[in-house]
Fold:
Amino acid sequence: MRIVVSGAAGFVGSHFCDRLLAEGHTVVALDNFLTGAAGNLAHLSGEPRFSLIQQDITEPFSIAGVVDAVVNMASPASPKDYLEHPVETLAVGSAGTRRMLDLALEKHARFLLTSTSECYGDPEVHPQVESYWGHVNPVGPRSCYDESKRFAEALTMAYHRKHGVATSIARIFNTYGPRMKLDDGRVVPAFLCQALAGAPLTVFGDGSQTRSFCYSSDLVEGLYRLMLSDERYPVNLGNPREMTILEFAERIRRLTGSHSPIEFQPLPEDDPKQRCPDIGKARAALGWEPRVTLEEGLRLTVEYFRGETAGALKA
Ligand code: NAD
Ligand code: UDP
Structure:
């Protein structure tokens, strides 16, 4: 297949491109490098089935030739990034998603949207199941991301219902792994960098809020299966092993052998208190569930972060 991927230079996008190429597909990658980096795709520069175009998908663009699938991953994803770029975040979820859907419509291609567990907001149903409509503050600081993704989901369903586009929607829960930016503010890079530098681990609030962490290769497997499936309604993709952020901080300290103290800092506004995916639908519809344990995933991620921090120190 020939597949157009937006947001390809980001953390998830770059791993997804690797997987598509490994499966024998041809990839046309689009990115404006707002939060991603061409360096994440540098290893593909000699690959004849891969091309990278610098393109803001909120602006008009066209792709020549056959396209079999359109994958829309472009969007700032870390709270630090979307709080810094709220307007760009709303624009890419709305105008950007529309341009990607128009491309799928024009080319008679299937379409995959990477949505998010943030569609559930600060959830009152736990674990979160796809049929839950969510509890989102529409005017809070996180609304630029949450509502952008909720709009993107609505637009995707509209193109399916009105135009018959073969669409799929992944609701991704917290995912981590190599190629996350060291300074993107998300809890995995934050704690790992702090632990490796012997700096205090910054736990927001009292650390009783929960998350569950999915390793990048597991997510990519779920996305790949979903892209090829006939499932039209949202599917949760994430790891259901839930823990408090304080427990997570302690785990990182143990894993890295760090003596970093814990430093409690204020909880950001509207920070969801609990989050854990119900993955029953992904199991049934895709035969998918995560395989990589937290210990193994963190070991691989620590290895990457050690390399990156050593490189940063040398530079
Ligand atoms: P990321 O920031 O590493 O990647 C996003 C990419 O989109 C970047 O390369 C960025 O430059 C690009 N981009 C942003 N605006 C663009 C625009 N207008 N035109 C072209 N490119 C643009 O984030 P990520 O963690 O890789 O997330 C990828 C996708 O998965 C996002 O849609 C995100 O919402 C979703 N997601 C990720 C997670 C997670 O835990 N990583 C969780 C939920 C949802
Ligand atoms: N968090 C934290 N310290 C940090 C960064 C994040 O305690 O340095 C917390 C944050 O408040 C949230 C959780 O870790 O409760 C996950 O945050 P992240 O930014 O990774 O993603 P979110 O799940 O909020 O989108």
Q: What stands out?
A: The chain has a mean pLDDT of 97.
